[in-house]
């Protein structure tokens, strides 16, 4: 290896520095074990989405090490001035390698686009110039992608056919952003038309017993066929046994049920009644006695199929009518299930001549003729975006220098969460909170999950923020804060989940005293509650007993001759014993306190602070030591891995670095402060 690599140390581990062209050129030789990450997702990153799409050549939503190296090699090969990668966004035309075959096409495309944008004298091009695909690839001009939007042709018949293809077979997106069709869809469309037309050509007089009115006659027949079949079956059963006649007609129970309803002709109960009154004579009277719910359908059937001069229908005639539609039903069942069948028959017949199909395929061929020039515009867009974003991605992938330098936010940092008097900068978007929390809990970091919404916007997102300084304070589920994304938009943030871990050594110092305070407070509250309950119970018992005695006394007559029970004498000895025991306990406590105070006062003045410090250290020391060890184990890797990253190293967040990620509320330097508190 001839290249000399430089590493920087931050938060306890080494990372490679990548800030020269030579570093980029030799990245393929750097041991992959020294890369901070080996893969990252394309979603949820604060980086240009189109740049990430270009790098993700296999389209799996993840960027891997070979794809990143390929993007770097491609970029370096098309630049004459490679230092432009480390300069502010904006690709100078002079930086493009015009000697490279593809570079010359990209340079020509850049000059053409700048002229189209009215910037013919500009010497640089940026991603804003290539952002609007409509300007790069106008819909009314060929663009080399082999897709044809309706706006590409000035002939109304061709444009109409393109729209018909889109409606029936769906569209693809042209480089201009417009819906368009490909050669494959054009060929499929016309092939489907030929299939449907061939099926229609099978129609003959034998298949259509009613000529051009066969379709409407069949619809009228189909609407009533099942009901008429039902009627004639019922009449045959009535002829078979007259005892069945009553049962086959509507029963009294059915009519009673209908009487209690708000009736309508389309009511299911009304329609379920027989078509007409069932008798043993198998003749259906068409003008009178028809179930009102079927009157309209029968009238249409009579008009379309039987003719208005026919007033009744026999069973034999009905069998003949059904037989006349058999061939039509068979033909109809063979109808191709193709979307083009919805088009008007006359239109399909017109399109079948093949001239329009050939004209559309010619448009595709004409479009592909400019593929090289159009592809050069795409390559230009890629090169412009790589110049602006590739080094940023490298410094958030191969190393986390943007994150650990604290000069720029890393691409995985979504923004800043303000909550409970602090600002949390290590904030990451989360797709699946449950799945993320399972992995992120291994980071040994205090994590706060928040649901974020904006007024008037349907968009919603979930974030997780790492609290790395200060104390837990009043952080709790349901607490509200404000989240500012990287664009400066503010979101209402509500805490929905906490993963509690140590936050700081300072918090650990006070933890034993807080626990003691909570324990004393809980015990006092418990004692007070129990005492209050005991008094309430005793009082209730006494009142109940007193009322009982009064009631008993009222029932029992007073006997003046019977002596009353003397009162229980006061036990002085027992009272003295209780008082003595209490005195001994108070005395022991007072003696112990006096001994401690007297011993402390006997110390030399400079020994007193040491004694106090030693006592505090004895109480808080173990808690602080445990917190110190846990804080040194805080790790960024699980937080990112839970989002789809493949972090390749232990990305530690030590105590000092953590304090820079969470800023606590402090008074501005030089601010005036009044210490007088009228409510102290």
From TrEMBL:
Domain of life of the source: Bacteria
Stretches that traverse the bilayer: 575-604, 610-629
Keywords, sorted A to Z: Membrane, Transmembrane, Transmembrane helix
Protein name per the record: EF-hand domain-containing protein
């Amino acid at each position: 290896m001839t290249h000399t690599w430089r590493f920087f140390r931050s938060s306890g581990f080494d990372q490679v520095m990548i800030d020269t062209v030579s570093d980029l050129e030799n990245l393929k030789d750097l041991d992959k074990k020294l890369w901070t990450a080996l893969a990252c997702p394309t979603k949820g990153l604060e980086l240009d989405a189109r740049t990430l799409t270009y790098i993700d050549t296999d389209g799996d939503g993840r960027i891997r090490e070979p794809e990143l190296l390929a993007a770097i090699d491609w970029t370096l090969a098309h630049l004459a001035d490679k230092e432009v990668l480390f300069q502010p966004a904006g690709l100078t035309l002079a930086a493009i390698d015009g000697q490279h075959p593809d570079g010359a096409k990209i340079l020509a495309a850049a000059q053409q686009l700048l002229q189209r944008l009215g910037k013919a004298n500009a010497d640089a091009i940026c991603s804003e110039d290539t952002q609007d695909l409509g300007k790069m690839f106008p819909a009314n001009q060929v663009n080399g992608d082999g897709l044809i939007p309706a706006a590409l042709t000035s002939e109304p018949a061709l444009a109409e056919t393109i729209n018909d293809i889109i409606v029936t077979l769906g569209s693809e997106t042209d480089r201009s952003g417009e819906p368009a069709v490909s050669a494959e869809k054009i060929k499929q469309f016309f092939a489907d038309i030929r299939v449907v037309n061939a099926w229609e050509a099978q129609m003959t007089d034998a298949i259509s017993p009613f000529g051009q009115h066969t379709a409407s006659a069949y619809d009228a027949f189909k609407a009533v066929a099942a009901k008429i079949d039902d009627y004639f079956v019922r009449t045959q059963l009535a002829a078979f046994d007259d005892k069945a006649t009553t049962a086959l007609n509507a029963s009294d129970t059915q009519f009673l049920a209908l009487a209690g309803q708000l009736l309508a002709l389309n009511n299911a109960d009304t329609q379920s009644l027989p078509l007409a009154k069932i008798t043993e004579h198998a003749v259906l009277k068409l003008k009178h006695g028809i179930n009102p719910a079927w009157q309209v359908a029968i009238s249409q059937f009579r008009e379309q199929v039987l003719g208005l001069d026919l007033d009744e229908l026999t069973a034999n005639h009905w069998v003949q009518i059904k037989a006349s539609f058999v061939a039509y039903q068979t033909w109809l069942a063979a109808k191709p299930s193709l979307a083009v069948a919805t088009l008007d028959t006359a239109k399909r017949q017109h399109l079948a001549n093949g001239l329009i199909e050939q004209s559309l395929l010619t448009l595709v061929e004409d479009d592909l003729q400019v593929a090289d020039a159009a592809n050069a515009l795409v390559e230009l867009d890629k090169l412009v975006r790589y110049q602006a974003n590739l080094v940023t991605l490298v410094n958030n992938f191969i190393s986390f220098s943007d994150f650990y330098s604290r000069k720029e936010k890393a691409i995985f940092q979504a923004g800043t969460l303000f909550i409970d008097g602090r600002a949390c900068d290590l904030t990451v978007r989360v797709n699946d909170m449950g799945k993320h929390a399972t992995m992120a809990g291994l980071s040994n970091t205090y994590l706060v999950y928040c649901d974020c919404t904006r007024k008037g916007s349907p968009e919603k997102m979930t974030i997780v923020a790492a609290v790395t300084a200060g104390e837990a304070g009043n952080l709790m589920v349901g607490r509200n804060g404000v989240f500012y994304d990287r664009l400066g938009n503010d979101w209402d943030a509500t805490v929905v989940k906490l993963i509690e871990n140590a936050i700081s050594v300072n918090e650990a110092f006070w933890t034993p005293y807080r626990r003691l305070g909570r324990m004393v407070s809980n015990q006092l509250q418990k004692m007070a509650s129990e005492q209050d309950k005991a008094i309430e119970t005793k009082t209730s018992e006494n009142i109940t007993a007193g009322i009982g005695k009064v009631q008993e006394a009222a029932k029992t007559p007073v006997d003046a001759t019977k002596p009353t029970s003397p009162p229980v004498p006061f036990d002085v000895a027992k009272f003295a014993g209780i008082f003595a025991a209490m005195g001994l306990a108070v005395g022991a406590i007072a003696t112990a306190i006096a001994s401690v105070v007297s011993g402390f006062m006997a110390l030399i003045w400079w020994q007193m602070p040491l004694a106090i410090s030693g006592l505090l250290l004895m109480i808080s020391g173990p808690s602080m030591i445990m917190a110190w060890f846990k804080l040194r184990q805080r790790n960024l890797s699980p937080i990112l891995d839970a989002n789809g990253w493949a972090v390749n190293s232990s990305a530690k967040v030590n105590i000092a670095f953590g304090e820079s990620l969470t800023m606590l509320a402090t008074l501005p330097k030089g601010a005036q402060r009044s210490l007088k508190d009228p409510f102290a």
